[in-house]
Amino acid sequence: MEKGRAFETIVGFFVLLVASFFFYFVYNQSSWKKIDGYTLSAKFDRADGLADGVDVKLSGVRIGKILSVNIDPETFLAFVKFSVPNNIQLPTDSSASVQSDGLFGGRYLALTPGGAEENIKQGGEIQNTVGPTNLESLIGKFMMSKDSEGSKDSKDFKSSEDSREDSGDVQR
Question: Can you give the residue range of the structural domain that contains 22?
């Protein structure tokens, strides 16, 4: 009976060890992890897909997270507050854009550093912003352009056929 309990104890210890590694990995990869740094903000005409805890990326690398997304009551623009690590100092002419993480992926805030000598201070605002691309409207425009090209091609075909009939090139 003691051998059975010893085996169960070892298996239980191994399961706890694997579970603790799993939770450590999830914690480090998720937005639960607190990112120390300073707070910046940006205003967007649209902030589709941005919410508290969404990633902030610089050169495709996650460096922070969004702290809040609200509406500025004076300008009616989306007001986004986010954190950036202290070791990353962004120039004053940096830009922020709402990007998509693939065709059907979630959105994130992408930062592009500028070239100014002076850096944005704690609580500062990024002035150069670009909202998200509306995929539905792009697809709609593409479909409409293809539809109009198709009708144009059929008109061209009919006009060339009509001109051949007029010239007597068409055999009946």
Answer: 1-30
Check whether residue 52 and residue 127 sit in a common domain: yes
Residues 76 and 12 in one domain: no
How far is the C-alpha of 53 from the C-alpha of 128, rounded, in Å?
Answer: 22
163: helix, strand or coil: helix
CA 60 centroid distance within chain: 10
Q: What is the 3-state secondary structure (H, E, C) of 1-49?
A: CHHHHHHHHHHHHHHHHHHHHHHHHHHHHCCCCCCCCEEEEEEECCCCC
Strand partners, 119: 91
Tens-place pLDDT, residues 116-169: 999 999 999 999 999 887 777 778 888 888 766 665 554 554 444 454 444 444
**In Å, what is the CA distance from 143 to each residue of 69, 137, 153, 161?**
33, 10, 15, 27
CA distance 15 to 10: 9
97 within 8 A of 112, measured Cβ to Cβ: yes
Give the tokens for residue 12.
């239980």
Q: Give the closest residue to 83 by CA, choosing from 110, 99, 100, 65.
A: 65
